Amino acid sequence: MVKYALFLGCQIPMRLPSIEIASRRVFNILGLEAVDLLGYSCCPEPVVSRLLDETAALATSARNLTLAEDLGLDMLTLCNGCYETLAEANEALKHDAEKRSKVNTILRRYGREYAGKVDVKHIVEALYEDVGLNGIRKHVTKPLKIRAALHYGCHLYREYKASDIMRKPNMMREIAMQTGVDIIDYGLERLCCGYPSMQADEEFSLKHRLLPKLSRMRSKGAETILTICPACTIQFEIGQVMLRSYGFQFNMPCINLMELLALSFGVPHRDLHLELHRSPVQQLVQKVLRVS
User: Fold this and answer.
1) How many whole angstroms separate alpha carbon 212 and alpha carbon 208?
2) Whole-angstrom Cα distance, residue 101 to residue 105?
3) pLDDT tens-place string over residues 52-108
4) 279: helix, strand or coil
5) Where is 7: in which H helix or E strand?
6) Comparing C-alpha atoms, which of 208, 213, 202, 194 is closest to residue 154?
7) Is the four-CA dihedral 94, 10, 153, 1 of positive or negative sign?
8) pLDDT-derived band of residue 162, with 50, 70 and 90 as boundaries?
9) What is the residue-averaged pLDDT of the chain?
10) What does the H/E/C string look like for 184-240?
11) 155: phi then psi, degrees, rounded to nearest 5
């Protein structure tokens, strides 16, 4: 059994608990042991925090990393943003003695010290590398015949182990294919969903980032949007509601990869509390399960 220190981040526990529920069920089925990382804080947020104060952002990340070091376990993230923040901080602090010294001066005030003894792994890496496609496929008892448009999320392209920025997105795509979904290519996979720009310009975010993606997905016949990033999930779900005030009507279900895996493994949809979604995921799944 592979063992990790689980970093849940902020968005999943507070706003998207069905993703946490699904992840824990998938971990149990696949034999991934995720040890809860007690006392963690925000990663912190990967876009603005470093622009405001790089040292503070690094110190916050380093403190979280020391919690995994205490357990002697590599860190596992379910969130693209958390992955980028923590993996980038880990790389910077491991290889920049000056930054590491500055951060540890801060951490020692709180009885902690960053040693650079752990790595940060995204959930798609753990699934692909530690379980494998065959290991996933053998647990699929209810293939889901859904036409899905993939949205990988910008932070999933951040790469620290290889030069190929498509390494993790390709992993996500191959993992999704094991569940039986029909992946619909729509040509705007790499366009940002608009979540970061929402903080600065709502109209730009919705009309020039989210709207083109939704329009293209729908025109290609996608029945659902498949994500791995919680921030992107929030943007797709809440953004569809907000677009109505601009005269655009969308009602596309948005499901997370971990929820998709859980459903394909035969976990009852009621156990996943899909009703907590702001998009019609529950209705889509009920329809698919009746058909199958």
Assistant:
1) 6
2) 6
3) 899 999 999 999 999 999 999 999 999 999 999 999 999 999 999 999 999 999 999
4) coil
5) strand 2-7
6) 194
7) positive
8) confident
9) 96
10) CCCCCCCCCCCHHHHCCCHHHHHHHHHHHHHHHHHHCCCCEEEECCHHHHHHHHHHH
11) -70, -20
